[in-house]
From TrEMBL:
Residues 82-341 form the Periplasmic binding protein domain. PROSITE patterns: PROKAR_LIPOPROTEIN. This is ABC transporter substrate-binding protein. Belongs to the bacterial solute-binding protein 2 family. CDD domains: PBP1_galactofuranose_YtfQ-like. Residues 49-72 are annotated as: Disordered. It is found in: Cell envelope. Keywords: Signal.
């Protein structure tokens, strides 16, 4: 596997529409500063306001979100022929998302065709072209990267309303509200900010951090890095010494962390853009003869069952939720569009899992 190092990404955070997420559970109360990790809470650094701040929570609802007015129309009718282009099935999050889409389609009596790009962008482009040829009433796409805009616009050109799930595409190639109806996502920037807050809580504001990035060019990798890297500037003692892609997989997370721990043996923390990479990192930390949760604090994003189990065990400090169960919201949005209009961006609310609430949520996690 080729290791890729990227420079810090700058940009303006996209405004988020605060809608109810796929889960009806409310966000938990913020834990006490420094709480939730293995062992005694670290002393907070005097120059790190994050270490004594409350959980920043979800982003505030924005105003002025435009409606999707120029996208292909969808006729209101009792049943639909629908397509879903999934980008991969190589981790529990993707499997849970696909299952949620299939379950909801079955519940509604819709015909759903699912393709799997196997984490290959060229294959996803061909998958979408093949789905266009089948002339579905509507199409859902979970893009591998933001470079899928052209083929999304191609679907719109064929008169198919497209709904993006969990990742966005480059608006220069596919215009929101015209080339696709809407994108339904979590606020990835805010997830990164909450992860930064959790890192300050875990370490007291002093840490030498290895950052494991997701798939290069994907919306969550870009935005989770942005939110985290910008937020830790509030604490001079929190320093990312190396940032490397591990492609959102557990195996790559372990391999990359093993390599980076050799070149940075002084690392005291790992920030992973998803749980699978974090779980790989925990295995690498153990292989290096260190204790996860004590010698090296780990913070991640997603809220998987394995991650919550690791939080409960003290190996993982916090997992910021990114709910994969898009089915109910996706088909509800499609129906709303058939009956009228929807905003060009819908953003879900996410919870935060720590030692205080992980155990009671393991059974319901994906």
């Amino acid at each position: 596997m080729q290791l890729r190092t990227r420079a810090m990404l700058a940009g303006v955070a996209v405004a988020a529409l605060g809608l109810a997420g796929c889960s009806n559970d409310a966000a938990p109360s913020a834990p006490a500063a420094g709480g939730g990790g293995a062992g005694a809470p670290p002393a907070a650094a005097a120059n790190c306001p994050l270490a004594s701040a409350p959980d920043p929570g979800n982003s505030a609802p924005p105003t002025g979100v435009p409606m999707a007015s120029g996208a292909p129309k969808l006729e209101a009718k009792p049943t639909y022929k629908v397509a879903f282009s999934q980008n991969a099935s190589n981790n529990p999050w993707r499997l849970a998302e696909t299952a949620s889409m299939q379950d909801e389609a079955t519940k509604l009596g819709y015909q759903l065709t699912v393709t799997d790009a196997n984490n290959d962008q060229s294959k996803q482009i061909q998958d979408i072209k093949g789905l266009i040829a089948q002339k579905p009433d509507a199409m859902f796409v979970a893009p591998i990267t933001e470079q899928l805009g052209n083929v999304v616009a191609e679907a719109a050109g064929a008169g198919i309303p497209v709904f993006l799930l969990d990742r966005n595409v480059d608006p220069a190639a596919a215009k929101p509200g015209e080339d696709f109806v809407t994108v339904i996502v979590s606020d990835f920037v805010q997830q990164g900010k909450r992860a930064a807050w959790a890192m300050a809580q875990a370490t007291g504001g002093n840490a030498t951090i290895i950052e494991l990035e997701g798939t290069t060019g994907s919306s969550p990798a870009i935005d989770r890095k942005k939110g985290f890297d910008e937020t830790i500037t509030q604490c001079p003692g929190l320093q990312v010494v190396v940032s490397q892609s591990a492609d959102f997989t557990r195996a790559d997370g372990q391999e990359v962390t093993e390599t980076l721990l050799q070149s940075h043996p002084d690392a005291t923390a790992v920030y992973a853009h998803n749980d699978e990479m974090a779980l790989g990192a925990i295995a690498a930390i153990r292989a290096a003869g260190k204790v996860p949760g004590q010698d090296i604090k780990v913070v991640s994003i997603d809220g998987s069952r394995d991650a919550l189990t690791a939080v409960d065990a003290g190996d993982l400090y916090t997992s910021v939720e990114s709910n994969p169960r898009f089915g109910p919201k996706a088909f509800e949005t499609m129906k709303q569009y058939a009956e009228g209009q929807v905003p060009v961006k819908l953003v879900l609310e996410d919870r935060l899992f720590n030692k205080a609430n992980a155990a009671q949520n393991i059974e319901s996690a994906y």
